[in-house]
C-alpha cells in the first residue's frame, strides 16, 4: 500500500484523499450517535477503526481478484509481467475507492438512510463530489494551474458548495392555520404550574452500574422481575455484550423509574409514562421531566419508567418487544401502588392513566387491554389479572399494529383516550394513532371521551428532550427541520393537551372539553400553527358514519335517508400517507364548477328526538392540496323552518399538507415509507343554539334534516365522517 501511494499520480492521491476524508467525517458522526458503553470519544473511535479495517479488507480482496485476473491474462496472452503490476495496482485502487464509498454509504445508513436502491444510488453523490474535488486539486497541483485545471477545481468546488447549501437550506413552509371566530378561553392555561411544590425520587434495583440514580443513589429499592418466559433477549455473542452493558438478563429485569410528585397529603392520581424505541444507551426515560414537573405541580404523581434495555442497539434488534413493553408497564403500576417511603398513602389507586411515546404509545394501549386479561396471550403460564383502575390512555405519536392480541387489532375499552401527532413527523410517518382513536369503545354506562389531534409543524423527537431531532446528522439535513416549531413550543403543545386531558379525565374537570373539541379555545396558550382535533364522547348520537352500507344512499342511522345533487359521493378509507389508510371509512364528496348547486343532505326519521342543549358535530377535511373550502350548514325542522350558518365561522377544513417533509419533495417517497399524506380531518362542533340565533323560528327539538350546501366554493373535494349530535355545554 505504501509503494502504491508513492507511485500514484497526484490526481489519484487527491481523489482518494477527498473520499477518505468524507468517509472519516461521516463515520465519526455515526460514532457520535453510537452508544457502546465506552464513552463518547471511544465509541466514535470504534466506528472509525472498524470502518478503516473494512476499507483495508475490501482493498485486499480486490487486489487479489485483479492479481488473479492479471496472472490468467499473462498466461493466455504471454504479455510482460508489467501487466501483473498494473493489474495489481488497478485492483488496489478499485478496492480503495470501493471501500471508501461503501464506508461513506455505511455512515449514512447508520445516520438513518433508508436502505432502498434509489436512495443508496443517490447517496453515492455524497462521496463522489469530494472525490472529484480532490482529483481536480491534485491534477491542478501536478500539472500547473492552467485555465482548464483551475476551471475544473472551481466547478468541483461549486458542486460541493451546492450540495452543502442544499443540505443546510431550510425553505419557508406554508401554515394552514384555520380562520373563523375564536371561542373565548373560559379556563386557565393548562400549561401553567399548579399550586403544589414538586419533589422527585427514583426507584429501582439499586444495582445499576451506569446510572447512579438507579444504582447506589436510588431512593427506593424494588425487586427485579423474571420475564424470561415472554422475552428471550439477544443471543450468542450479542448476549454476552448485553449482559456486560446492562448487568442482567431476562431472569432478573429491574423495575426502574423516575417519579415527580406533589408535596401534600393526597391522594393524587397516578400517571405512568413509557418511552419508545431509541438508541438503547442514550437513555430515554429522563426526557419527559418537563411533563413530570408540570403535572406534579398540578396534583399528579408522574412516573417515567425505564425500558431502555428493550430499545435497539447493535447487539439487539428491538422487534417484537411490544407486548413485553406493555406487560412491564403494568408491573410498574403494581410497584408504584405498593411503593412506600414518601409515596406512602399518596397514590389514588382509583385514578390511573397510562401514557406512551412512539412505540411506548402503542405499548400504553396494549397495556390497557392486557389489564383486563387473566393470562399473557402468547404464554398462558404467565398470569396477569392485574385489573387496575386505568381510566385514561394518552399516546404521543404512537405506532400502531406492531402487535396484535391473538392476531386482532387492540381495542381499548372504557377509557378516555388522547393521541397527538406531528405533521412533520419523519419517524412515525402516518397518523397511525387515529386508528387507535377509532377503535376505542365504551360499554360500561359511564361518561367517556376521546380526542385525536394533528399538529402541523411538530416532529417526532422533540416530545422527548433526550431525542430532539428525528434523525442524526447528516441525514437530518435532508428533512425540513428549520421551519418547524421550536422544541420548547412543541413541548408546550404536549403540556397543554396532556394537562387538559388528564384534568378532564382523572379529575372530572369538564371545563377543558371545549378546548379538546376546538383548539381555538386555547389560542392564547398554544403556539401559532395549524391544529386538527377529532373529538367524540359517549353522548354522541351517530347519523352517518359511512360504515354500515356500501351504498352511499343508505346512511348509518336506521330509517334515515341520504340525498345529494351536483356532486359525487364515494365511500372509502381515507389515505393517511401513501398506501397507509384509516381503518374506518368516510365519504368523499366532489363537485365541479357550474351545473346544479351542490348539496348533501341527511333526512332523519320521524321518530328522531333531539334533546337540547346539543350541537351538530361532524369531521371534515379538504381532499385537494392547497384548497380552501367554505360551505353553508343548514338544519331544517319538521315544520320546514330552516336555519343556516357558515362553516368558516367555526374554522376551515384543512387541505392535505402541501409542504414536503424532505427539503427536496421528490425524496418524500424515497425517504418516507409511503410518500405524500392524505386529507387531515377535524371535528366541527356547531351548537344548535347558533342555528336558533340565525332563525328564531327554528325548533332544534324537531330536527328533520341536516344539509351541507357547497355554495361558497366553486369546485372542491372534501372528506366527511361521523355526522351526528353531541351534548354541548
Domain tally: 3
Average per-residue pLDDT, rounded, comes to 87
> Do you know the CATH topology of the largest domain?
Rossmann fold
Specify Rg, calculated over alpha carbons: 30 Å
Uncertain parts: none
The count of β-strands is: 25
CATH architecture annotation of the largest domain:
3-Layer(aba) Sandwich
> What structural category characterises the helix and strand content?
alpha+beta
- CATH homologous superfamily of the largest domain, by name? Alpha/Beta hydrolase fold, catalytic domain
Give the overall shape.
globular
The main pleated sheet reads as: 10 strands, mixed
Share of helical residues: 25-40%
The strand line-up of the biggest sheet is 2-1-3-5-4-6-9-10-11-12
Number of helices, counting only DSSP H or I runs of 4 residues or more: 16
Strand content: 15-25%
